[in-house]
Structure formats: C-alpha cells, structure tokens
Amino acid sequence: MSFQKKVQNYLDELASTLEALDFDVDYADLTLSFAVEEGLYLFKVHQLTEEIWLSSPQSGGHRFSYDSEKKCWVNIRNGLELEDFLTKELHISFLKT
Q1: Taking residues 34-52, what's their average pLDDT?
Q2: 3.30.70.60, 3.30.565.10, 3.30.920.10, 3.40.50.300: CATH of 3-90
Q3: 94 class by beta-carbon count within 10 Å (0-12 exposed, 13-18 middle, 19+ buried)
Q4: 15, 20, 44, 66: least buried by Cβ within 10 Å?
C-alpha cells in the first residue's frame, strides 16, 4: 500500500474515532486538527519524509513514521505508538485492531 493511501486511511479512522469521542475535528487535505482546553492539536502529513507531524499544545512537536512490523505509526524519537501517545495526552482509549 502506498504511503498516501496508508496515511489517508489512518487519518480517516482517527477523525472518525475522535468525532465519536465528541471532539470537534477539522479534517481536509491530509491535515487534521481539533481543539482541547489547552489549545490545538494539529496533524500534518509530510510527504517527503513520509511522516505524520503532530503539534501538541501540551508537549510540542512530534514526528511519527509507519512501522510495517508493528503496523502502526510510531514516534521516530522514542518509539511510542501514536495511539498510545494520544491516549496518554487526551486521557482517552483507542480500541486496537
């Protein structure tokens, strides 16, 4: 599967999950954002490096690349899975498939 399709599928699913959890999500052109009390979370796709870049109002900038062995997006610095990161920061739970 191409990077473009992989990242689009993931952001589509993430947007649906966040909306189901009552977050007001703005999603278009592979850019996803939503606000929390502390500020704005912004996800942007960086095509050149094939990464999802995330700006968090709580912890700053993060970059995630797709790990084909784990079949998930992981932080390039510490190996934390993107969904685990969001679970920790937002105090929400994702169902892993």
Answers
A1: 96
A2: 3.30.920.10
A3: middle
A4: 20
CA 78/CA 91 separation, integer angstroms: 20
> What's this model's pTM, rounded to 2 decimal places?
0.90
Task: Find where tokens 């970059």 sit.
Answer: 63
Distance, CA of 39 to CA of 96 (rounded, Å): 27
Which stretches within 1-97 are classed as H helix? 3-20, 82-90
Query: Once rounded to an integer, what is the mean pLDDT over residues 70-92?
Result: 93
Confidence of residue 95 (pLDDT cuts 50, 70, 90): low
Which secondary-structure segment (H or E) carries 34?
Answer: strand 31-36
User: Is residue 91 very low, low, confident or very high in pLDDT (cuts 50, 70, 90)?
Assistant: confident
**C-alpha–C-alpha distance, residues 79 and 40, integer Å:** 23
Joined tokens for residue 43:
């996800």
